[in-house]
């Protein structure tokens, strides 16, 4: 296993960062024009035929930019359940999806179509009422769906293990992007803000905290990249790796954002500063799908039982087709 990025992957990261710096909330059609919506979709379905590793690069950059749109819900959640003809529509930017894995559904305000788990399959949900809720992170609102009827059968529930691994890994990578941006802002601030005649970053009480934050971030990022490799290679450890990565990276993002806010002093607590938005995204990710405490318990349980995966956990509690009455 080689976690070194190729020249093409590094170039993709640079292009994504430059694009998102100017367009933090691009339209779905713009992402399709860039080829981002079809990265891991087969070439004969209009995609690029690449792997989840390339998508991992994009998830990290989208997290850094606090992207507001259905990329996570479509590519991480719904894509493995979609048949070839619907994947072609995604690659072309014609439609986007979200998948209801729990009562609170992500990206309901931007996704075109909804998939839902019911019985022994994953179905498209038709005629449902959507209600988008106010959440801490306004860039990724959650909502509920009510009523509706199951339409086309998309996939059997056996694909839920892959979906869970992709989703948790994507959230881990987004967390790394959030933490990386927060740390970048903190380093920039302490390098220019002077107190007693020199930058405050020269004081060990500040520099040591940021060094610890950097170390913590790099450890979590390595774990997230390992999980991305496992997902891309369909490795049997993918579910364990993804759970460990999300647990580590999400909590790291929260901790790094808190450190960044503190070293900024009073300005870090203001609504005008970018940090509070990064902090809210970190808090939202940490609690979404499963908390770090729950995920660590799942990983420990699997390892103590001598298992290298947690495939059975992904299908333990499917959501009913009807939500909210």
Proportion of residues in β-strands: 5-15%
What radius of gyration results from the CA coordinates?
20 Å
Structural class: alpha+beta
Number of strands: 9
Q: What spatial order of strands do you see in the largest sheet?
A: 1-3-4-7
- In the CATH hierarchy, the third-tier topology of the domain at 161-315 is known as Butyryl-CoA Dehydrogenase, subunit A, domain 3
Principal-axis shape equals globular
Order of helices and strands: HHHHHEEEEEEEHEEHHHH
Helix proportion range: 40-55%
Give a description of the structure.
- The chain is α+β, with helices and mostly antiparallel strands and 325 residues long.
- It has a domain at 161-315: Butyryl-CoA Dehydrogenase, subunit A, domain 3 (Up-down Bundle).
- Helix content is 51%, strand content 12%.
- The chain contains ten helices and nine strands.
- The chain has helices spanning 7-22, 28-34, 52-64, 71-78, 84-91, 160-192, 204-232, 238-264, 275-287, 292-304, and strands at residues 97-100, 105-106, 113-118, 121-126, 129-132, 142-146, 149-156, 194-195, 198-199.
- The strands form three sheets. A four-stranded mixed β-sheet has the order 1-3-4-7. The protein has a three-stranded antiparallel β-sheet with strand order 2-6-5, with no helix packed on it. The protein has a two-stranded antiparallel ribbon with strand order 8-9.
- The longest helix has 33 residues, at 160-192.
- It is globular, with a radius of gyration of 20 Å.
- It starts with 6 loop residues before the first helix and ends in a 21-residue tail after the last helix.
- 49% of the residues are buried.
- Residues 312-325 have low confidence and may be disordered.
């Amino acid at each position: 296993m080689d976690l070194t990025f190729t020249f093409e992957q590094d170039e993709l990261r640079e292009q994504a960062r430059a694009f998102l710096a100017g367009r933090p909330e691009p339209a779905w059609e713009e992402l399709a024009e860039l080829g981002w919506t079809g990265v891991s979709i087969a070439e004969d379905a209009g995609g690029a035929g690449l792997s989840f590793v390339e998508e991992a690069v994009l998830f990290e950059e989208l997290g850094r930019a606090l992207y507001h749109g259905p990329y996570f819900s479509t590519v991480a959640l719904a894509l493995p359940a979609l048949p070839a003809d619907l994947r072609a529509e995604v690659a072309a930017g014609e439609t986007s999806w979200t998948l209801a894995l729990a009562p609170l559904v992500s990206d309901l305000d931007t996704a075109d179509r909804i998939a839902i788990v019911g019985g022994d399959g994953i179905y498209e949900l038709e005629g449902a009422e959507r209600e988008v809720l106010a959440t801490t992170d306004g860039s990724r609102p959650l909502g509920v769906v009510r009523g509706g009827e199951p339409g086309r059968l998309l996939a059997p529930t056996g694909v839920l293990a892959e979906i869970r691994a992709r989703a948790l890994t994507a959230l881990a990578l987004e967390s790394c992007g959030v933490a990386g941006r927060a740390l970048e802002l903190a380093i920039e601030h302490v390098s220019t803000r002077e107190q007693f005649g020199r930058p405050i970053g020269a004081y060990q009480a500040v520099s040591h905290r940021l060094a610890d934050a950097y170390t913590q971030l790099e450890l979590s990022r390595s774990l997230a990249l390992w999980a991305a490799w496992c997902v891309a290679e369909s490795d049997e450890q993918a579910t364990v790796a993804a759970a460990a990565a999300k647990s580590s990276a999400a909590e790291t993002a929260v901790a790094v954002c808190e450190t960044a806010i503190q070293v900024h002093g009073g300005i870090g607590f203001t609504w005008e500063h970018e940090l509070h938005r990064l902090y809210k995204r970190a808090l939202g990710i940490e609690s979404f799908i499963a908390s770090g405490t729950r995920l660590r318990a799942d990983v420990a349980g699997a390892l103590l039982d001598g298992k290298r995966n947690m495939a059975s956990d992904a299908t333990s509690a499917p959501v009913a087709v009807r939500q909210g009455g």
